Amino acid sequence: MTRVLIGALLAGVASAALAADLPPRQPYNYSAPVYAPAFTWTGVYFGVNGGGGWGATSNGSFGNLSGWTFGGTVGANYQINQFVIGAEGDWDWANVGHTQYFTFSSNQMNVNQTLTLRARAGFAMDRALLYVTGGYAGVNANASFSTPLAGWGGSQSQWISGGAIGAGVEYAFTNNITAKAEYLYLPLSSTTFFGSALYSTRAPVDLSLLRAGLNYKF
To answer: Which residue spans traverse the membrane (predicted)?
Structure first.
Protein backbone atom coordinates (compact mmCIF):
# COMPACT_ATOMS: atom_id res chain seq x y z
CA MET A 1 0.00 0.00 0.00
CA THR A 2 2.86 2.30 0.91
CA ARG A 3 4.52 1.58 -2.43
CA VAL A 4 1.32 2.42 -4.30
CA LEU A 5 0.97 5.77 -2.53
CA ILE A 6 4.61 6.64 -3.16
CA GLY A 7 4.22 5.71 -6.88
CA ALA A 8 1.10 7.83 -7.25
CA LEU A 9 2.84 10.77 -5.56
CA LEU A 10 5.86 10.50 -7.84
CA ALA A 11 3.60 10.31 -10.95
CA GLY A 12 1.75 13.42 -9.85
CA VAL A 13 5.01 15.30 -9.30
CA ALA A 14 6.26 14.26 -12.77
CA SER A 15 3.00 15.31 -14.43
CA ALA A 16 3.12 18.72 -12.74
CA ALA A 17 6.72 19.23 -13.82
CA LEU A 18 5.89 18.27 -17.42
CA ALA A 19 2.91 20.64 -17.47
CA ALA A 20 5.10 23.45 -16.19
CA ASP A 21 7.46 22.93 -19.13
CA LEU A 22 4.69 23.17 -21.78
CA PRO A 23 4.07 26.62 -23.44
CA PRO A 24 0.97 28.41 -22.25
CA ARG A 25 -2.16 27.93 -24.38
CA GLN A 26 -2.78 30.91 -26.66
CA PRO A 27 -6.28 32.39 -26.69
CA TYR A 28 -8.22 31.88 -29.95
CA ASN A 29 -8.97 35.11 -31.75
CA TYR A 30 -12.11 35.01 -33.91
CA SER A 31 -12.11 37.40 -36.84
CA ALA A 32 -15.41 38.18 -38.53
CA PRO A 33 -15.33 37.84 -42.35
CA VAL A 34 -14.70 41.09 -44.21
CA TYR A 35 -17.18 41.92 -46.98
CA ALA A 36 -16.64 44.58 -49.66
CA PRO A 37 -19.13 47.44 -49.30
CA ALA A 38 -22.10 47.32 -51.66
CA PHE A 39 -21.76 49.51 -54.75
CA THR A 40 -23.79 52.73 -54.76
CA TRP A 41 -24.54 55.22 -57.51
CA THR A 42 -24.64 58.05 -54.99
CA GLY A 43 -21.97 60.64 -55.72
CA VAL A 44 -20.76 63.50 -57.89
CA TYR A 45 -19.14 62.72 -61.23
CA PHE A 46 -17.58 64.35 -64.27
CA GLY A 47 -16.50 62.98 -67.62
CA VAL A 48 -16.43 63.22 -71.40
CA ASN A 49 -18.95 62.30 -74.08
CA GLY A 50 -19.08 62.10 -77.84
CA GLY A 51 -21.09 60.74 -80.70
CA GLY A 52 -23.21 61.62 -83.69
CA GLY A 53 -26.00 64.11 -84.31
CA TRP A 54 -28.62 64.51 -86.99
CA GLY A 55 -31.80 66.46 -87.54
CA ALA A 56 -34.15 68.20 -89.90
CA THR A 57 -35.46 71.68 -90.60
CA SER A 58 -39.15 71.17 -91.09
CA ASN A 59 -39.68 73.63 -93.95
CA GLY A 60 -36.70 72.39 -95.99
CA SER A 61 -34.82 75.69 -95.94
CA PHE A 62 -31.63 74.05 -94.73
CA GLY A 63 -32.32 70.37 -95.40
CA ASN A 64 -31.28 67.53 -93.11
CA LEU A 65 -28.36 68.11 -90.77
CA SER A 66 -25.76 65.53 -89.72
CA GLY A 67 -22.37 65.44 -88.04
CA TRP A 68 -20.62 64.85 -84.69
CA THR A 69 -20.44 66.20 -81.13
CA PHE A 70 -17.80 66.00 -78.39
CA GLY A 71 -17.61 67.59 -74.96
CA GLY A 72 -17.73 67.36 -71.18
CA THR A 73 -20.26 66.20 -68.59
CA VAL A 74 -20.87 66.92 -64.90
CA GLY A 75 -23.59 65.48 -62.68
CA ALA A 76 -24.68 63.98 -59.38
CA ASN A 77 -26.74 60.94 -58.35
CA TYR A 78 -28.51 59.83 -55.19
CA GLN A 79 -29.55 56.19 -54.75
CA ILE A 80 -32.54 55.07 -52.65
CA ASN A 81 -32.73 51.27 -52.60
CA GLN A 82 -32.72 50.45 -56.34
CA PHE A 83 -33.95 53.85 -57.49
CA VAL A 84 -31.51 56.54 -58.59
CA ILE A 85 -32.33 60.22 -59.08
CA GLY A 86 -29.95 62.92 -60.20
CA ALA A 87 -29.10 65.86 -62.41
CA GLU A 88 -26.68 66.15 -65.31
CA GLY A 89 -25.35 68.90 -67.55
CA ASP A 90 -23.14 68.78 -70.61
CA TRP A 91 -21.60 71.18 -73.10
CA ASP A 92 -20.35 69.93 -76.46
CA TRP A 93 -18.53 71.23 -79.46
CA ALA A 94 -20.42 70.18 -82.56
CA ASN A 95 -20.24 70.07 -86.31
CA VAL A 96 -23.77 69.13 -87.31
CA GLY A 97 -24.75 70.82 -90.55
CA HIS A 98 -25.88 70.75 -94.15
CA THR A 99 -25.90 72.90 -97.30
CA GLN A 100 -29.18 73.03 -99.17
CA TYR A 101 -28.90 73.99 -102.85
CA PHE A 102 -31.62 75.67 -104.88
CA THR A 103 -31.73 76.77 -108.51
CA PHE A 104 -30.10 80.16 -108.01
CA SER A 105 -29.12 80.11 -104.34
CA SER A 106 -28.02 77.99 -101.41
CA ASN A 107 -28.57 77.93 -97.65
CA GLN A 108 -26.19 76.47 -95.12
CA MET A 109 -26.71 75.73 -91.42
CA ASN A 110 -24.19 74.40 -88.92
CA VAL A 111 -24.84 73.66 -85.24
CA ASN A 112 -21.48 74.26 -83.53
CA GLN A 113 -22.41 74.03 -79.82
CA THR A 114 -24.92 72.07 -77.76
CA LEU A 115 -25.88 72.45 -74.11
CA THR A 116 -28.26 70.35 -72.02
CA LEU A 117 -29.33 70.62 -68.37
CA ARG A 118 -31.40 67.60 -67.40
CA ALA A 119 -32.89 65.59 -64.56
CA ARG A 120 -32.30 61.83 -64.51
CA ALA A 121 -34.28 58.99 -62.94
CA GLY A 122 -33.25 55.37 -63.14
CA PHE A 123 -33.41 51.82 -61.84
CA ALA A 124 -30.18 50.21 -60.64
CA MET A 125 -29.38 46.53 -60.98
CA ASP A 126 -26.19 46.54 -58.93
CA ARG A 127 -23.60 48.09 -61.29
CA ALA A 128 -25.99 48.55 -64.23
CA LEU A 129 -28.29 51.58 -64.41
CA LEU A 130 -31.21 52.09 -66.78
CA TYR A 131 -32.43 55.69 -66.85
CA VAL A 132 -34.66 58.26 -68.50
CA THR A 133 -33.78 61.93 -68.69
CA GLY A 134 -35.29 65.27 -69.65
CA GLY A 135 -34.84 69.01 -69.32
CA TYR A 136 -33.48 72.06 -71.15
CA ALA A 137 -31.47 72.05 -74.37
CA GLY A 138 -29.87 74.84 -76.35
CA VAL A 139 -27.71 75.01 -79.45
CA ASN A 140 -25.72 77.67 -81.24
CA ALA A 141 -26.53 77.61 -84.95
CA ASN A 142 -24.76 79.49 -87.71
CA ALA A 143 -26.80 80.00 -90.88
CA SER A 144 -25.77 81.56 -94.18
CA PHE A 145 -27.29 82.12 -97.60
CA SER A 146 -25.84 82.96 -100.97
CA THR A 147 -27.44 84.15 -104.23
CA PRO A 148 -24.49 84.63 -106.59
CA LEU A 149 -26.48 86.00 -109.56
CA ALA A 150 -28.11 88.73 -107.50
CA GLY A 151 -25.03 89.37 -105.40
CA TRP A 152 -26.86 88.75 -102.14
CA GLY A 153 -25.51 86.83 -99.21
CA GLY A 154 -25.11 86.88 -95.47
CA SER A 155 -24.67 84.85 -92.31
CA GLN A 156 -26.14 84.89 -88.83
CA SER A 157 -25.40 83.03 -85.58
CA GLN A 158 -28.18 82.50 -83.07
CA TRP A 159 -28.74 80.64 -79.84
CA ILE A 160 -31.80 78.39 -80.13
CA SER A 161 -33.48 77.00 -77.00
CA GLY A 162 -35.75 74.03 -76.57
CA GLY A 163 -36.12 70.80 -74.66
CA ALA A 164 -34.34 67.48 -74.29
CA ILE A 165 -35.75 64.04 -73.60
CA GLY A 166 -34.09 60.66 -73.82
CA ALA A 167 -32.93 57.43 -72.22
CA GLY A 168 -29.75 55.49 -71.67
CA VAL A 169 -27.84 52.76 -69.89
CA GLU A 170 -24.77 53.17 -67.68
CA TYR A 171 -22.44 50.56 -66.21
CA ALA A 172 -19.87 50.86 -63.40
CA PHE A 173 -16.69 48.95 -64.21
CA THR A 174 -15.17 49.98 -60.87
CA ASN A 175 -16.43 51.97 -57.89
CA ASN A 176 -15.25 55.13 -59.67
CA ILE A 177 -15.27 54.49 -63.44
CA THR A 178 -18.58 54.29 -65.33
CA ALA A 179 -19.47 54.22 -69.02
CA LYS A 180 -22.79 55.07 -70.65
CA ALA A 181 -24.64 55.11 -73.96
CA GLU A 182 -27.66 57.37 -74.47
CA TYR A 183 -30.06 58.85 -76.99
CA LEU A 184 -31.39 62.40 -76.67
CA TYR A 185 -34.08 64.09 -78.75
CA LEU A 186 -33.91 67.89 -78.85
CA PRO A 187 -37.04 69.66 -80.14
CA LEU A 188 -35.90 73.26 -80.62
CA SER A 189 -37.92 76.43 -81.14
CA SER A 190 -38.62 77.82 -84.59
CA THR A 191 -36.21 80.65 -85.42
CA THR A 192 -36.20 83.32 -88.12
CA PHE A 193 -32.93 83.90 -89.93
CA PHE A 194 -32.11 86.89 -92.14
CA GLY A 195 -35.25 88.79 -91.22
CA SER A 196 -35.14 91.55 -93.84
CA ALA A 197 -37.14 92.83 -96.75
CA LEU A 198 -34.78 91.08 -99.15
CA TYR A 199 -34.66 87.63 -97.64
CA SER A 200 -35.76 85.69 -94.57
CA THR A 201 -36.41 82.10 -93.66
CA ARG A 202 -37.90 80.51 -90.57
CA ALA A 203 -36.50 77.13 -89.55
CA PRO A 204 -37.58 74.89 -86.69
CA VAL A 205 -34.71 72.50 -85.95
CA ASP A 206 -35.12 69.10 -84.31
CA LEU A 207 -31.89 67.31 -83.39
CA SER A 208 -31.14 63.76 -82.29
CA LEU A 209 -27.95 62.88 -80.41
CA LEU A 210 -26.61 59.36 -80.03
CA ARG A 211 -23.48 59.32 -77.91
CA ALA A 212 -21.31 57.45 -75.46
CA GLY A 213 -19.65 58.76 -72.32
CA LEU A 214 -16.99 57.91 -69.75
CA ASN A 215 -17.34 59.28 -66.19
CA TYR A 216 -15.30 59.40 -62.98
CA LYS A 217 -17.45 59.20 -59.84
CA PHE A 218 -16.39 60.47 -56.42
So the answer is: none
Instruction: Judge whether 140 and 155 are in contact, CB under 8 Å.
Output: no
Asked whether residue 36 is assigned to any structural domain, the reply reads: no
**Residue 198 falls within a domain, yes or no?**
yes
Total structural domains in the chain?
1
Model pLDDT, residue 145: 84
Average pLDDT over residues 152-166: 90
Closest among 94, 138, 139, 88 to 112, alpha carbons compared:
94
| HEC profile of the chain | CHHHHHHHHHHHHHHHHHHHHCCCCCCCCCCCCCCCCCCCCCEEEEEEEEEEEEEEECCCCCCEEEEEEEEEEEEEEEEECCEEEEEEEEEEEEEEEEEEECCCCEEEEEEEEEEEEEEEEEEEECCEEEEEEEEEEEEEEEEEEEECCCCEEEEEEEEEEEEEEEEEEEEECCCCEEEEEEEEEEEECCEEECCCCCCCEEECEEEEEEEEEEEEEC
C-alpha span between 24 and 176 (Å, rounded): 49
CB-side exposure of 73: number of CA atoms within 13 Å? 25
Q: What is the CATH number of the domain that holds 197?
A: 2.40.160.20
- Residue 136 burial (10 A CB sphere; 0-12, 13-18, 19+): middle
Q: What is the reported pTM?
A: 0.79
Domain around 211: 43-217
